[in-house]
Write a structure and sequence with these properties.
The protein is mostly beta strands and 75 residues long. It is built from no helices and 5 strands. Strands 1-2-5-4-3 form a 5-stranded antiparallel β-sheet, with no helix packed on it.
Length: 75
């Protein structure tokens, strides 16, 4: 199982989600929604970074919900 790394930078107000190895990042692109998409040399998405991400909970915590579809059978 691959690991997903989630980093919430409370000083820079960013939320970064790595789906692959950060060291493999080759190019990053800023979208119109102020989300940075990081890709490797062949164009696979390695991660995303959400800019201006601030918690809405009064205690400063950030809630995260993850939905992972079941793996497809081989073949």
């Amino acid at each position: 199982m691959e690991r997903i790394k989630v980093i919430h930078d409370t000083i820079g107000n960013t939320l970064t989600v790595w789906l692959g190895t950060p060291q493999a990042e080759y190019v990053s692109t800023l979208t119109d929604d102020e989300v940075v998409v990081m890709k490797d040399r062949v164009g696979r998405v390695l991660g995303v970074e959400v800019l201006h991400c601030r918690p809405v909970e009064p205690d400063g915590r950030l809630s995260l919900e993850v939905s992972i579809p079941p793996a497809l059978p081989p073949g």
